[in-house]
């Protein structure tokens, strides 16, 4: 689809009644995850033949939507997730935002949506963080979770790509994704559901993928587990990913294994960053298929000493217990192992400016 090449300027409209400072301070003292939102949002319009236009920073408010809007009928919708961090020197920064922009555009292409210039994607986030910086939570591990998304806003009924879209960015002050104090998460192997199939939208970050994971995720929680893990759709044999996180397996000889990107797994930016950090240290890393039978056998024999999940929201989280219809096993001690803790500390240290950034992953916002 045609994109506007000319620079786009943002029109800012301050919120006429922002949340009072005292109320805001109380809210961000213990924000949880994804339930509190800042005062403003960014909206940029797209029209076929015209490209991107009318970029605004204004009050966060409901979005008027025609009942025939294409997103409601044909699910043309994608999103991203990234965080703004407070650096050790008091400044604020984003972590690898151009990678989010690139993945956003790959998702857009898969769903027949217009791509967005990477610099415009990043500038939209910069504009929102600047106006809502006072919402940054002071809680340990806190950050501003940024949610850019795009949807088809054209009103029509007919199976074709829409010609009008809205790109929106909202922000939420957040704490830790999982409850603090938990040594590791417990996950349930789904035997009845698959997350994605070859040729589908598994590598795109679209809402439909997550909607399809809600029933098996609820099943996992009902059985007393934190997350669901999906196997491949063809053989129902190979481990793929959790409902929203990639998986890594650490062997007793130091080798680290993670499932390969074959189009059915979301290419996580945290996943890619951890692979780079592991290779920087000279560790043996393999992106190769890993079966659920191997997972069980390696855990029981002691060959598998650690397992962890990773993603923007949860960062790096140990997996301690795994269960399925006909199996249950514990990995190592059932708690976070030394490599899991090391990688989490290293990654969060880079994100918060507390450790060197050899790959220039940090983009300062001040």
Automatic annotation (TrEMBL):
Domain of life assignment: Bacteria
Needed cofactors: pyridoxal 5'-phosphate
Gene3D superfamilies, per the entry: 3.30.470.10, D-amino Acid Aminotransferase, subunit A, domain 2
Reactions the enzyme catalyzes: L-leucine + 2-oxoglutarate = 4-methyl-2-oxopentanoate + L-glutamate; L-isoleucine + 2-oxoglutarate = (S)-3-methyl-2-oxopentanoate + L-glutamate; L-valine + 2-oxoglutarate = 3-methyl-2-oxobutanoate + L-glutamate
Pathway entry: Amino-acid biosynthesis; L-valine biosynthesis; L-valine from pyruvate: step 4/4; Amino-acid biosynthesis; L-leucine biosynthesis; L-leucine from 3-methyl-2-oxobutanoate: step 4/4; Amino-acid biosynthesis; L-isoleucine biosynthesis; L-isoleucine from 2-oxobutanoate: step 4/4
Enzyme class: transferase
Name of the protein described by the UniProt record: Branched-chain-amino-acid aminotransferase
Source organism of this protein record: Croceicoccus esteveae
């Amino acid at each position: 689809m045609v994109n506007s090449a000319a620079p786009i300027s943002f029109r800012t409209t301050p919120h006429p009644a922002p949340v009072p400072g005292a109320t805001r301070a109380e809210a961000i003292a213990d924000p949880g995850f994804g339930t509190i939102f800042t005062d403003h949002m960014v909206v940029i319009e797209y029209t076929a033949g015209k490209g991107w236009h009318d970029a605004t920073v204004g009050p966060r408010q409901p979005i008027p939507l025609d009942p025939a809007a294409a997103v409601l009928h044909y699910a043309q919708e994608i999103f991203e997730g990234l965080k703004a961090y407070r650096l050790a020197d008091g400044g604020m920064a984003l972590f690898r935002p151009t990678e989010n922009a690139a993945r956003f555009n790959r998702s857009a292409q898969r769903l027949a949506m217009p791509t967005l210039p990477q610099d415009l994607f990043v500038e939209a986030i910069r504009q929102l963080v600047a106006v809502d910086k006072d919402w940054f939570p002071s809680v340990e591990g806190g950050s501003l979770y940024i949610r850019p998304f795009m949807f088809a806003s054209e009103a029509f009924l007919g199976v074709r790509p829409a010609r009008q879209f809205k790109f929106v960015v909202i922000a939420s002050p957040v704490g830790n994704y999982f409850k603090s104090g938990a040594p590791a998460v417990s996950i349930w192997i789904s035997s009845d559901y698959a997350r994605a199939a070859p040729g589908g939208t598994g590598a795109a970050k679209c809402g439909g993928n997550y909607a399809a994971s809600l029933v098996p995720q609820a099943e996992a929680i009902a059985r007393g587990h934190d997350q669901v893990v999906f196997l491949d759709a063809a053989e129902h044999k190979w481990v793929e990913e959790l409902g929203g996180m990639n998986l890594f397996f650490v062997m007793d000889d130091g080798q680290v294994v993670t499932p390969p990107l074959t189009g059915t797994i979301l290419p996580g930016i945290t996943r890619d960053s951890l692979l780079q950090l592991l290779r920087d240290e000279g560790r043996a890393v393999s992106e190769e298929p890993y079966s659920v039978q191997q997972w069980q056998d390696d855990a029981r024999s002691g060959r598998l000493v650690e397992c962890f999940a990773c993603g923007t929201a949860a960062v790096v989280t140990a997996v301690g217990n795994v269960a399925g219809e006909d199996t249950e096993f514990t990995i190592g001690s059932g708690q976070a192992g030394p490599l899991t803790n090391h990688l989490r500390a290293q990654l969060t240290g880079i994100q918060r400016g507390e450790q060197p950034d050899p790959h220039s992953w940090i983009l300062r916002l001040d």
